[in-house]
Amino acid sequence: MAPAASKLRAEAGLEPLPRRALSQYLRLLRLYPVLTKAATSGILSALGNFLAQLIEKKQKKENCSQKLDVSGPLRYAVYGFFFTGPLGHFFYLLMERWIPSDVPLAGIKRLLLDRLLFAPAFLSLFFLVMNFLEGQDTAAFTAKMKSGFWPALRMNWRVWTPVQFININYIPVQFRVLFANLVALFWYAYLASLGK
Q: TM segments (predicted)?
């Protein structure tokens, strides 16, 4: 009886919500890969900043129901949508072309490309774009780079090196941005905490 009921639910389009959501996400990913990755990046980046604000309020023992700064998640959403999603999409595709999987030590070479070239450039871009979105001047950007870049890059290497090893070597290319976004949810919470 249970298999028949399950079949009827599926035919009527009454599948469980997670399955429907995943199916819809995969459909959008196939039809609009860059836009889907951009939207996912924007949403998860904003959520990461929102979590950073909640964590900061808890650490200061403030009331979490007090008003949160809406501009922070908006900035992170803009960065995720216009930079993280699209750049990640194209970087992973180019990496596949530049270093095909049949090249000796491809996984290590890809990881080195990501860690030594992409990570510092992407982090610099993050500081530059956030500085612009916050309405800061060049002096503020220079100061932020001097005080925050190397600590953030060292933390990036510690956190992201094992993550990217898994991502680059074991996650199918169409899901790499999503995988990185899920880890970035917490990474952006860390980066947002540097801005305070």
A: 34-55, 76-95, 115-133, 173-190
Task: Give the span between the Cα atoms of 187 and 191, in whole angstroms.
Answer: 6
DSSP characters over 131-194: HHHTT--HHHHHHHIIIIIHHHHHHHHHHHHHHHHHHHHHS-GGGHHHHHHHHHHHHHHHHHHH
Give the whole-angstrom CA distance, residue 58 versus residue 28.
Answer: 37
**Residue 195 burial (C-beta neighbours within 10 Å; 0-12, 13-18, 19+):** middle
* Global pTM value: 0.84
Q: Where in the sequence is the domain holding 129, given as residue range(s)?
A: 17-195
At 11-29, the pLDDT tens digits run 555 567 788 888 999 999 9
Helix (H) or strand (E) holding 195: none
The secondary structure of residue 118, as a DSSP letter, is I
Residue 1 pLDDT greater than 50, yes or no: no
